[in-house]
Write a structure and sequence with these properties.
single chain, about 220 residues, mainly alpha
């Protein structure tokens, strides 16, 4: 029995160290790829700036591409959690919480946000798919708050997608030049969403804008 316990415990400690080491490499990679394009960084550059042996990165991620995708996926998981939080709130408040959470993530995790939205994406279809997944998660969250469901018609979805894409560009500019407070930025984006929801209703009355988005409310 003692021999069995001795055999198990080292493996557990090794696993914990591996998870922590992998997370550390991803955190370093977020900063590296946010400031420099994917093609501009070689594996030698990455290893030198991370202060690790190049073989360690290959051990955990198999390739430079695998490392980059792991960084993007990790960043996306955080962003979706922040943007889609507050599901226990009433539908009206949920939209405000989603926008505020999105801005908070961008403000406090600027390197990760730039990596997701514009950090060396290039023509990598897998990275585009990951980024599209973030957009879809936000659209679903907004649709749930505005219409009470996420399975919406193509026109309504395109209206929300157009808004999300404008939010990405505005947020990138905001974190580079934060001349507006987060509260003001949030109010601006929520009002812009109201405009999008009213436009959807005008083109498809079966998708009425919720009360807070209406000018006559």
């Amino acid at each position: 029995m003692r021999q069995q316990r001795a055999a198990v415990r080292p493996r557990a400690r090794g696993t914990e160290r591996s998870v922590a080491r992998r997370a550390e490499l991803i955190a370093i990679g977020r900063k590296l790829f946010a400031d420099t394009s994917y093609d501009a960084l070689s594996m030698d550059d990455i290893a030198r700036q991370a202060h690790v042996a190049k073989g360690l990165i290959y051990y955990y991620f198999q390739s430079k591409r695998g490392y980059y995708l792991a960084i993007i996926q990790d960043s996306v998981a955080d962003l979706v959690t922040f943007a889609a939080s507050g599901l226990e709130l009433p539908a009206v408040d949920r939209v405000h919480r989603t926008v505020d959470s999105y801005l908070r993530f961008a403000e406090h995790h600027q390197a990760a946000y730039r990596t997701i939205v514009s950090g060396g994406v290039g023509f990598d279809t897998e990275v585009h798919a990951i980024r599209d997944g973030v957009r879809e998660a936000i659209i679903d969250t907004i649709a749930e708050g505005a219409y009470g469901r996420s399975d919406i018609a193509p026109l309504a979805r395109m209206g929300l997608l157009s808004w999300v894409c404008s939010v990405e560009g505005a947020t990138l500019d905001w974190i580079d030049r934060p001349t507006l407070s987060r509260d003001t930025m949030c109010d601006l984006l929520v009002k812009a969403l109201g405009g999008s929801l009213r436009a959807v209703e005008e083109l498809d009355p079966s998708y009425p804008a919720p009360l807070p988005a209406r000018r006559d409310a």
